[in-house]
Design a protein that fits this description.
- One of its GO terms (molecular function) is hydrolase activity.
- This is DNA mismatch endonuclease vsr.
- InterPro entries: DNA_mismatch_endonuc_vsr, Restrct_endonuc-II-like.
- Belongs to the Vsr family.
- It is a single chain.
- The protein has 188 residues and is mainly α.
- The protein has a domain of 129 residues: Endonuclease, Chain A (3-Layer(aba) Sandwich), CATH 3.40.960.
- A hairpin with a 4-residue loop joins strand 1 and strand 2.
Length: 188
Amino acid sequence: MGTASSDSAHEQHSDNASAASMATATAAPPRQSAKHRKSRKPRRSTKPEKYARGTRSYTMSHIRGKDTSIEVLVRSYLFRRGLRFRKNDKRYPGHPDVVLPKYHTIVFVNGCFWHMHEGCTKHSMPKSNVEFWTAKLLRNRARDAAQHAELEAAGWHVIVVWECELAKATREERLGKLYAQIVGGGAN
């Protein structure tokens, strides 16, 4: 009898031991202390960070694709001069910022950074994540060229107004030139 009870006690103990070993096998490994963790150093540029941590994502999420301040500026000028137009018309490639059917003219108001304005001080390649930004901005430029060619092939006169041309010092001159380009029929 002594052996029967010791056998059942042994089985019970081995069942408890196997349950405990299974619990530790499925549990997450214990966390290492900060002292023993491998530290990964984030890539940092030599330039000091302009934004606090997390602010860049918030800022980038609020960049608008339409009704930007420079687009509103151009549209309000054209409206004051008596021109009537459609805005962000999805029927045309690139959803042009201003479509003037009467003059068969389309106006794109481009930001210098996003559309890679050559020789402009407002366009500079970001120092972080260079491969991503280079590919993205080059795709933007190629897409713009294809859309402009498609519109011109369809008989539209395409005008591009750059953000840097709308600086306060040159704004009135550029807007006057834009009006003349539209009404005059295309002399750049």
